[in-house]
Design brief:
By secondary structure, the chain is α/β, with parallel strands linked by helices. It folds into two domains: 33-86, no CATH class; 89-177, no CATH class. The protein is built from four helices and six strands; from the N terminus they run ββαααβαβββ. It has helices spanning 38-49, 68-73, 76-85, 100-104, and strands spanning 8-11, 20-23, 91-94, 110-113, 141-145, 148-152. The longest helix has 12 residues, at 38-49. It is flat, with a radius of gyration of 20 Å.
């Protein structure tokens, strides 16, 4: 979620009913349909209860191995410290690929990204004409910066104009070994 996102509102009580709290998420901004966050929150609970992220009864703000839910509550500096002290292989999913230089400085091994739709409308011998902000340097394919590798997927959708020209949709499967 982006800072400032409203995730809940207190509903107006009916004449004989008590006040209630209604939660909903509007993931695509103003005018987008609201969704019920319960399946997402249930997924976080299931993830935290898994053997990988089992909570150890630690204070979430002092945890050395935070659960997935605890990590969502951490500040940027806490996350940086966690990443820098943990030398397990790191895979990062970031919607915008142009953050690669900053990500590489943290020792991330593999970054998977999208956002650019591969340029969406492409003409032979000409660079992509329409690229989104934070998707203008790394448009599609595999890149390496230092020890960090990044793959930018073209995806299957379109932005703005619902057309793709000379830019085939893509679904990529990786096997990590």
């Amino acid at each position: 979620m982006i800072g400032g996102t409203v995730i809940g509102r207190v509903g107006r009580p009916a004449a004989a009913a008590a006040a209630r709290l209604t939660f909903s998420i509007r993931p695509a901004g103003k005018g987008a349909p609201k969704i019920d966050p319960k399946p997402i929150l249930d997924g976080w609970v299931a993830l935290e209860d898994s053997a990988i992220f089992k909570a150890k009864g630690e204070n979430p703000f002092l945890a050395t191995s935070p659960t997935a839910g605890q990590a969502l509550l951490e500040s940027k500096s806490q996350l940086e410290q966690q990443v820098l002290r943990d030398r397990e292989p790191m895979l990062l999913m970031s919607h915008e690929p142009d953050v690669l230089p900053e990500i590489a400085s943290y020792g991330v091994d593999l970054m998977l990204s999208g956002h650019t739709h591969g340029g969406q409308i492409r003409f032979p011998f000409v660079p992509p004409l329409f690229l989104p902000r934070f998707g203008r340097i790394y448009v599609e394919g595999m890149f390496r910066l230092g020890n960090t590798q990044m793959y930018v997927n073209r995806g299957i959708g379109a932005v703005g104009i619902p057309v793709r020209l000379n830019c085939r949709p893509e679904i990529t499967q990786f096997t990590l070994i």
